[in-house]
Amino acid sequence: MNMNLYGHADQWLMVDCGVTFHEPLEPEFAAVEHDVVCADPQFITRQRKQLAGLIITHAHEDHIGAVEDLWPRLRCPIYTTRFTAAVLRRKLSYTDFAEQVEIIEVETGQTHTIGPFKVTWLELTHSIPEPHALLIETAAASVLHTGDWKIDPHPVLGRPFNPKPLQQLADLSIDALVGDSTNALKAGHSVSEQSVYEGLYEAVKAAPKRVVVGCFSSNVARLITLAKVAEATGRHLALFGRSLQNMVNAARSVGLWPEAIQLTRPEHIGYLPANEVLVVATGSQGEPRAALHRLAEDSHPLLALDTDDLIVFSSMIIPGNEDEIAALVQRFHQRGIKTLQAHQSSKPIHASGHPCKDELKKLYDWVKPRIAIPTHGEPEHLEAHAKLARQQGVPFALVGCNGDLFRIAPQPSIKRQQVYTGRIALREGPSS
């Protein structure tokens, strides 16, 4: 549930405004979970007139999901790219203030002045269309905020990763790199999105009956790959879950969805022969109201699964979701339905959207920042990221917690617990 604030000259710039799901508000009350949770914006809403703007780096829920609830407290312009803007407008269409929100669409490489901040959008690759890093410059310092990223030479959707914009930053004397730590414990290089085709094709081809694939709804490239798998194996592809439909519609509205791909209406898929069915369903993390859960419980209104049907988890196990996913898999097995998880496949059927150690090393070799500020990870990920940055010759690595104030200039430092932080529960989660 990312929410970052950069401060300079008595003004603030917010980067991302996301949510998390099925979490407690306080660690000591872990048994009481809420469907949708976000960071408490109290610190910035008390000084709303000093908030120059909000930038959304990409359209994942942990970066964009709280905007529809929190914007009335922020009331600032929103800057983002075309696809992310399309996703955001769909979210805002369910509110009564959509027409009040100023959304400024930004192209790759453009620079916008937002209060005292000069911001340039740098295109990267990730597991969703149009992810961007931000070069944030002020009179005091310059920062590269990576957002979520990876080095992917074959992303399926969008342009291949181009290191040149990052390499050119070395000449600008970047003061701080604020970067993704999700895979900082993993050696090597992340798998390219293109590489999952073969594993998915072989799994679907070998299946004698229906195949249902669980994946993250935001991964439009994965949906395109599965459409190609469906065509190659003589199956019809249908999407189960509102979030999947919304992502495809957003991609189609900005010209990112290939017009040649034909989807079968969900309500028709249950009437087809079993060996002609391929379904993509929400709920790969065991979410209780998602399509996979209802299929496991045999309560989905559009499809009933039988013995020897196959469930493919084209997704990672997000830490903290192990029990829910195990319970979901067990429900399928009790009904004689087969499952295949990513760690059980001999070939990749999922590709992470985050950089592993070798990619982080390349980033620091290119940018050569004075300070590394690891974000987006648990404490062990942040520490591993900081250690790697030091090994790459970065003079300062600052590791902190929510509520810490990082001073980038003139002297790098952290003031611990300077800002009130907390969690607030939002609306009930949308039905998937």
What do these coordinates show?
The chain is an alpha/beta fold and 432 residues long. The protein has two domains: 257 residues, 4-Layer Sandwich (Metallo-beta-lactamase, Chain A); 152 residues, Metallo-hydrolase/oxidoreductase (Rossmann fold, 3-Layer(aba) Sandwich). Helix content is 26%, strand content 22%. The chain is built from twelve helices and 22 strands. The strands form five sheets. It has a seven-stranded mixed beta sheet. It has a five-stranded mixed beta sheet with strand order 1-2-5-6-7. The chain has a five-stranded parallel beta sheet with strand order 14-15-13-16-17, with helices on both faces. A hairpin with a 5-residue loop joins strand 20 and strand 21. Helix 4 crosses helix 8. The longest helix is centred in the middle third of the chain and has 14 residues. It is globular, with a radius of gyration of 22 Å. The mean pLDDT is 96.
Based on CA atoms alone, the radius of gyration comes out at 22 Å
CATH architecture of the largest domain: 4-Layer Sandwich
- End-to-end separation in angstroms reads 20 Å
Task: Report the helical percentage.
Answer: 25-40%
Poorly predicted segments: none
Average pLDDT confidence is: 96
Total number of β-strand segments? 22
Structural class: alpha/beta
Number of helices: 12
**How many domains make up the coordinates?**
2
CATH class of the largest domain: Alpha Beta
CATH topology category name of the largest domain: Metallo-beta-lactamase, Chain A
**What is the strand arrangement across the widest sheet?**
8-9-10-11-12-18-19
Organism: Pseudidiomarina taiwanensis
InterPro entries: Metallo-B-lactamas, RibonucZ/Hydroxyglut_hydro, RMMBL, RNase_J_2, RNase_J_b_CASP
GO molecular function: exonuclease activity; metal ion binding; RNA binding
Keywords: Exonuclease, Hydrolase, Metal-binding, Nuclease, RNA-binding, Zinc
